[in-house]
Amino acid sequence: MGVLDDIKGGLIVSCQALPDEPLHSSFIMGRMAYAAMLGGAKGIRANSCEDICEIKKNVSLPIIGIIKADYPNCPVYITPTMQEVDALVACECDIIAMDATNCPRPTGETLAEFFAQVRKKYPTQLFMADCSNYEEGMAAAEMGFDMVGTTLSGYTEYTKGAPAPNLHLMSGLVYNCGKPVIAEGNIWTPEQLQLAKDCGIHAAVVGSVITRPMLITQRFAAVMEG
């Protein structure tokens, strides 16, 4: 069995904390991943080589790795250049995810040009396309990404206001792209996850509602503050 079989029908928990968040710590993310594994997760999504290496010490689950990097005047920040891809390959991520939107990349290349170089350099590595709409998902499948995710639906300028979670996008990609579809983005309840599962997805990534207590608290506090 391969990695895609290992995560099929399973929950992937995103264990991430940015530098401005209270839980920003590779040690904490390692323990968070361990808790997720004990809870039944079949995979982990993580940001940065430091976090990924620590998580690997705690769990034996497949890891979807990313590196969030900010480049001047560029909206693409999820594994945006070959530098980040090289680093993720070096820390032996099972799957590498990258922004697969139509947004301009830091190097000025199109996604197709960039991914062609990536695939040539790393022909056996598994890659996940983080997309924001149907056209991007279909294009990513055509380019040769191994799986297509709905990660960025609602996060690009041209998809603001999209349904959250975007079940229509999930269904369309499941039926037409020919690649495993990973549901990701704005899944906050088990009921929403069930609806995503009913779309025929390969697996689902859930993050904030499990691993970001500050955001969870804000949602409950907002109700009380009325």
Condensed summary:
This protein has 226 residues and is an alpha/beta fold.
What do you see in this structure?
The chain has an eight-stranded parallel beta barrel, surrounded by six helices. The mean pLDDT is 97. The N and C termini lie far apart (51 Å). The chain has 226 residues and is an alpha/beta fold. The protein has one domain: TIM Barrel (Alpha-Beta Barrel), CATH 3.20.20. 42% of the residues lie in helices and 15% in strands.
Largest sheet: 8 strands, parallel, barrel
Structural class: alpha/beta
Strand order of the largest sheet: 1-2-3-4-5-6-7-8
Q: In angstroms, what is the radius of gyration?
A: 17 Å
- Give the terminus-to-terminus CA distance: 51 Å
CATH architecture: Alpha-Beta Barrel
- Mean pLDDT comes to 97
Count of structural domains: 1
What is the global morphology? globular
Ordered list of secondary-structure elements with their pairings:
Layout: H1 3-7, E1 11-15, H2 26-39, E2 43-47, H3 49-58, E3 63-66, H4 82-90, E4 95-99, H5 111-121, E5 126-130, H6 134-143, E6 147-149, H7 167-176, E7 181-184, H8 190-198, E8 203-206, H9 208-211, H10 213-225
Helix pairs in contact: 2-3
What keywords describe this structure?
alpha/beta, TIM Barrel, 10 helices, 8 strands, 42% helix
